[in-house]
Amino acid sequence: QLVAYEVKRMRAEEGNKQKILRHIKELAEKLYKNENPYPAVTMHKVQKPTEGCHLRLHQKPFPHLDEGTVQWIIDQATAKLQTAPPAVKAEKKCMVPSGPPIAAIMERNGNALANSARRLEVVRNCISYVFENKMLEAKKLFPAVLRAMKGRAARHCLTQELNLHVQQNRAVLDHQQFDFVIRMMNCCLQDCTAMDEHGIAAALLPLVTAFCRKLSPGITQFAYSCVQEHV
């Protein structure tokens, strides 16, 4: 329905934050009402007793419950349930016109795609600089890389690039390289959602057991020791 009816309105609102926010709020209310057709029943929370409360003196005895009152409350609730509307909302089917051609929407997304491509390029360049020991250039790009990790495409790109370097037998790093790689991995995992668990997080698993640094003769530290706290 948005694509069919709201495109003109969305274009008219571009650049006006207040109008956009109002529109988003309206949409949010519609979606919320769709998911929650009936008002939620308030649940009474029963507080847990505090630790050591059983050791206290002068405990009041539990009051005697009146059987008639309890039964009356149960009967009231049962009567309410019988008159309650059905829990499942009947679906109303309707035809939605196709709206403007997809090309019109794709044009508007063109800038976003270009931005995404630039972000991936920044991630690739930064990783190349780290492995080529061009630390000054890597430092300049690093803040942009950490910002890019908010997007799934950039996180996926990081795992692919690091995997290429492992395949080229470049897994043993010096201290500075190790620090850069760990910070990128940590940032990537920090921004991962439950949806990334079997994709990005799983792709990082073999990498964190490959990348390492020599701390002293005979002692090697692997990357997993620095990133294993993530859920």
Automatic annotation (TrEMBL):
InterPro entries: SBF1/SBF2. It comes from the Eukaryota. It holds the Pfam family SBF2. Residues 99-231 form the SBF1/SBF2 domain. This is MTMR5 protein.
